[in-house]
Write a structure and sequence with these properties.
heterodimer, A: alpha/beta, 3 domains, 15 helices, B: about 400 residues, six-stranded mixed β-sheet, 9 strands
């Protein structure tokens, strides 16, 4: 674990993640207090990445539970391996033996799903459990998750109650496609990840794409930052900035120019309405301002 | 440390007073957190307090302001005044319910309107069938305050449901998925032979409703009744309701409706709207909805009801564009216009003309009868209503 916020920040940087101070503080406290970290923010600001980086920095396993509507216990916690059970029964019968029930519902036939895996993990460092996009699940699952997160134990009727030796480090993310219930958020440390500042975003691009010429990185970042100020249905996230820089690199561009901006705008804008608005004069005016500034 | 701890607790109480949802558990955590983070850096302390005490994005600015006002050097002057000023700001932003509220101002049309029969005290049981019939067809705008009260009481209890949609959650049923777990358990009764398949079906849930209602000028009365109607639905668990109102600016009132007092919530909201007589900007309000709320409340493909007479002060083209966008992202877009109740009404205003090609249903809401029709209509949408063309019957209602 990390002894200070600074240590955590350094570890994140070593893993090529540039976090603003507030996020480092929240993450540090989540670890110290043993509470889930609830991350909210627009798409593509690096919420999921926090969990991945945290797992790498802690040298532990990342267990990911991707949420969707209708997610249930069998997908989230455990399921019995029915086909294997049936096969086993048939094999025993062929040999003239009778199957024992305890054997059929033993560890050999148990399929661990992410939540159970996180609770049963017995490594030197507790794993990082990522509950991704919890807003996509429904209220039923949210209520169940709340229960698991409060005592880190689940009950399997055939086996009994399984309790976590040491609770996993939990990171919950949400894109706000609906409001997650306050009860769940109240259990967690809450942090809203905003779009990064110009300097931070530049640092992210430079860290992730070391091959990119600095001038190109600067232009791309400045362009996207300007674009975020416009009224768009979907503002480009950091992920889009990185994609765009990578795309320009692949096209062997050393600097931005108005033509290439128009040609590659689809990498950062994903709605037809937005593209129509930006392509042409508007993109050129941003481009000119960026050129003047860098 | 005790001095700091008591200050922390006081800070928590201040935040709670401002309407933030601060739990005692998190306050205890904060005391522990201060040990970990230290007080050397003010920004770290602020971050720590924020991630523990705030859990809604919209509360962050208020927290920041309260933090600045509370945690500062004594030399900088009195904090008390600033904090109470913050309270004012909060009430403006998000009305609270405990406050005494002045009675509603009577809207002028109802006072001037001729009232031939004296208004009866209670609506349903006491009324003779004919009087009930009269009230059913009386325009809300022409009703007296007492009549409106009766109607509201009635509307809140109206037993209406909404159509359902099939979720992805499964439950035991007839079709179409096999429940292996249950099948196997059953088979054990027959020595491991599978005789019958246990099945699962998709669970149905009431389709969520989103109401976007005009509260400018003459529309307020209709909106009030309709919101009560919706609130009644939400209260009985018949559907999940998200509610927004607009004059020139869009305001979300879902949380107020949960506060159990629609009347008071609406009064508070109408006070909070700054430019009351500035005219209606439907296009801009819909745009604000699409931008700021679309992704958050349209995820479950709800039924969207817009209540407005279509008197648009802004650009009709913007209104058309935003209405089209809204329709693309919801299950069904229903436009409710009280003027449609008038026998000679034609949707000729520029706003209405711009919107009509993009709505699925165009219906009146001016009296109880039309509200009942609406209720029935919401129910008949059961089963998906795949065509999505405006129903001819709903258009010809005014004829």
């Amino acid at each position: 674990m990390f002894e200070s916020i600074d240590a955590l920040e350094r570890a994140f940087r070593d893993e090529l993640y540039v976090a603003e101070r507030g996020l480092s503080t929240s993450t540090f406290l989540a670890l110290k207090l043993g509470r889930p970290l609830f991350l909210e923010g627009e798409a593509g600001v690096g919420k999921t990445e926090v969990a991945k980086v945290l797992a790498r920095a802690l040298r532990t396993e990342l267990i990911r539970l991707q949420c969707y509507e209708g997610l249930d216990v069998h997908q989230a916690v455990y399921e019995w391996n029915y086909s294997r059970q049936m096969l086993h029964v048939r094999l025993l019968e062929a040999r003239g033996d009778a199957p024992k029930e305890a054997e059929l519902f033993g560890p050999d036939f148990l399929l661990e799903r992410p939540l159970l895996r996180a609770i049963r993990a017995r490594g030197p460092v507790p794993p990082v459990l990522l509950v991704d996009e919890v807003d996509r699940s429904d209220e039923e699952f949210e209520a169940f998750l709340l229960e698991v997160l409060s005592d880190f134990q689940v009950t399997i009727p055939e086996i009994g109650t399984v309790r976590a030796e040491r609770p996993p480090v939990v990171v919950v993310t949400s894109n706000r496609t609906r409001d997650v219930h306050d009860a769940l958020k109240r259990r967690c440390l809450y942090h809203w990840i905003d779009y990064p500042s110009l300097e931070n975003e530049l640092a992210i691009v430079m860290a992730k794409l070391p091959d990119a010429p600095e001038r190109l990185a600067r232009q791309v970042t400045a362009f996207v930052q300007e674009l975020r100020r416009a009224e768009l249905y979907k503002r480009p996230g950091v992920a889009e900035t990185l994609d765009w820089a990578a795309a320009l690199l692949a096209l062997d561009r050393r600097t931005l120019d108005a033509t290439v901006v128009d040609e590659t705008l689809g990498v950062i804008l994903k709605y037809q309405d937005d593209l129509q608005r930006v392509r042409g004069p508007f993109a050129r005016s941003i481009h000119d301002r960026v050129q003047a500034a860098t | 440390m005790t001095g700091l701890a008591s200050n922390l607790l006081l800070f928590g109480r201040v935040l709670r007073g401002l309407g933030l949802d601060v739990s005692p558990g998190r306050m205890r955590d904060l005391v522990v957190a201060v040990d970990h983070v230290g007080l050397a850096r003010r920004a770290d302390f602020r971050d720590a307090a924020r991630c523990l005490l705030v859990h809604r994005h919209e509360d962050v600015p208020l927290f920041e302001a309260a933090f600045d006002a509370f945690w500062r050097k004594p030399a900088e002057g009195s904090t008390h005044l600033d904090l109470s000023a913050l309270g004012e700001k909060r009430r403006f932003r998000r009305p609270r319910f405990g406050l005494p509220v002045a009675p509603l101002p009577e809207s002028p049309p109802s006072d001037e309107a001729p009232q031939s029969p004296p208004p009866p005290p209670v609506l349903v049981p006491v009324l003779s069938p004919s009087a009930q019939e009269v009230l059913r067809h009386k325009d809300f705008a022409e009703m007296s305050a007492e009549e409106i009260e009766d109607v509201q009481a009635f509307v809140r209890q109206a037993a209406v449901g909404v159509d359902t949609y099939r979720t992805r959650r499964r439950r035991p049923g007839r079709r179409p998925f096999v429940d292996v777990r249950r099948t196997l358990r059953r088979s054990q009764r027959h020595g491991g032979e599978v005789l019958t398949w246990a099945c699962l079906e998709r669970r149905a849930k009431p389709r969520p409703l989103v109401v976007i209602a005009d509260i400018s000028g003459s529309m307020e009365r209709y909106t009030r009744v309709l919101l009560l109607f919706m609130y009644g639905l939400a209260e009985r668990g018949a559907s999940r309701v998200e509610a927004f109102v607009f004059g020139t600016r869009l305001t979300r009132i879902t949380r107020h409706l949960r506060g159990r007092d629609v009347e008071r919530a609406l009064t508070e909201v109408s006070r909070a709207v700054p430019d009351w007589s500035g005219g209606t900007r439907i296009g801009e309000s819909l745009r604000a909805f699409n931008f700021d709320w679309g992704r958050r409340v349209l995820g479950r493909r709800p039924l969207v009801l817009v209540v407005s007479d279509g008197w648009e002060r802004g650009e009709p083209s913007l209104l058309a564009e935003e209405a089209a966008r809204l329709r693309r992202s919801c299950h069904r877009l229903v436009w409710l216009n009280p003027l449609l109740g008038a026998p000679d009404y034609q949707p000729l205003t520029q706003g209405m003309k711009a919107v009509l090609p993009h709505v699925d249903d165009f219906r009146p809401v001016h009296n109880l009868a039309s509200l009942e029709d609406l209720g029935r209509h919401l129910l008949t949408l059961r089963g998906g209503a795949p065509g999505r063309r405006p129903l001819p019957s709903s258009r010809s209602l005014h004829a």
